[in-house]
Write a sequence for this structure.
């Protein structure tokens, strides 16, 4: 009986939370200097909310979340006029649970540089994102196809191109 209990305890430790909805689920954030943090759904909800409508696969959807710059401020990433000189070569790498990755230029995600917004969304059409899309999705306003709309976002890191 003892090996069965040990095996069960091991499985529970290794498997981690039962679902992304456990409240502890979040997105890992890494800043330029290696600063680390994470953002949970509750923390995202506390940031100023933005709603954008985008066309994806022949349908228009309303996504809501926070501007990516607001999220990245948690790890000290520059915004607005602070993005100049060397910061113009900074990139944002967004990773999904399924291994999908994309890169964006930091200046191109900033509201002071371009009118199209980039958000970390947690709702679509007024409802929380479904498991196959969420709990978080990157949404890039103005994209002609949703190749950069990373679903199941698990990590966002900022790096400098040298």
């Amino acid at each position: 009986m003892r090996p069965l209990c040990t095996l069960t305890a091991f499985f529970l430790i290794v498997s981690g939370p039962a679902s992304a909805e456990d409240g502890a689920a979040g997105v890992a954030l890494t800043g330029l200097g290696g600063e680390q943090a994470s953002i949970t759904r509750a923390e995202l909800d506390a940031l100023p909310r933005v709603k954008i409508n985008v066309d994806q696969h022949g349908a228009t959807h309303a996504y809501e979340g926070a501007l990516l710059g607001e999220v990245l401020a948690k790890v000290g990433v520059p915004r607005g006029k602070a993005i100049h000189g060397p910061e113009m070569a900074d990139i944002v790498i967004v990773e999904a649970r399924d291994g999908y990755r994309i890169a964006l230029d930091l200046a191109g995600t900033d509201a002071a540089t371009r009118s199209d917004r980039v958000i970390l969304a947690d709702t679509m059409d007024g409802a929380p994102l479904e498991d196959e899309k969420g709990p978080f999705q990157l949404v890039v306003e103005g994209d002609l196809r949703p190749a950069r709309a990373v679903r199941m976002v698990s990590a966002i890191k900022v790096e400098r191109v040298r």
Remarks:
- Residues 1-23 have pLDDT under 50 and may be disordered.
- The two ends are 58 Å apart (CA to CA).
- The helical segments are 2-15, 41-46, 68-72.
- The longest strand covers residues 59-67.
